[in-house]
Structures are given as C-alpha cells and as structure tokens.
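Researcher: Here's the sequence for the chain we discussed earlier.
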Amino acid sequence: MAGSKTKFTVRHRFSFESAHQLPGHPTCGAVHGHSYRGEIKVTAARLSGQGYVVEFGALKDIARRYDHARILTQTAEQLAEEIGRAVLTHIREQSDRAEVTKVLVVLWETPDGCAEWSWRSA
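Model: Thanks. This is the structure I predict for it:
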C-alpha cells in the first residue's frame, strides 16, 4: 500500500532478584533487595536477512546478567538505560541486522513503581 510503513516488534519479559543500595538515600541507603520485573521491546522497519528483529536469546542473556547481582548506586532509571544500551550494542555488533527504529525498556523495581528508557532512530 502506498504510504504505509512496515513495522515489526518483539518483546521479551524478564525478572531477576538483585541487591540494591543508594548510599545517602533516606530509605534506600541500606543494602536491600528487589524483585525486578521488566520488558524489552524492539521495533524494526526491516528484518535481518535471517528474518528476525533481534534474537530472543540475546535479550534473555542481557537480562540474565542482573540476576543475583549487586546493583549498588544505580536508580531504576539508570538500570533501565543500561539494559537498553546493552540491547543497542548487541544489535549494532550484528553484521546482518534488522533496521531497528526503537528500543524500549520498562523496569519495575517494586510492584507499584517502574522506570522507562527509550531510544528512537533519527
């Protein structure tokens, strides 16, 4: 159809347990833990030559890095950005990559509070 744009999106949901501390913060200054939940969403205008946006295994591996890790001094916003940038790095390292137009990371630090980070191609 004239004027229409193709779009492909993949999502990967994940969860992990991590130690957390924000030194000097009134409630998060002591070491404590979080059961993080999140979702990585990657959108592409064109698939790779192998027919994918990004391998699900790569997204699983990125999220798995944080399981039982010590996340000291990072806010949920900073952690969401770190995960998102790791996804972008992985995509950019692929010789046969999709034409990715957007990456979104939503990271729930508590059942009631989450942070989002997004990137969009120019």
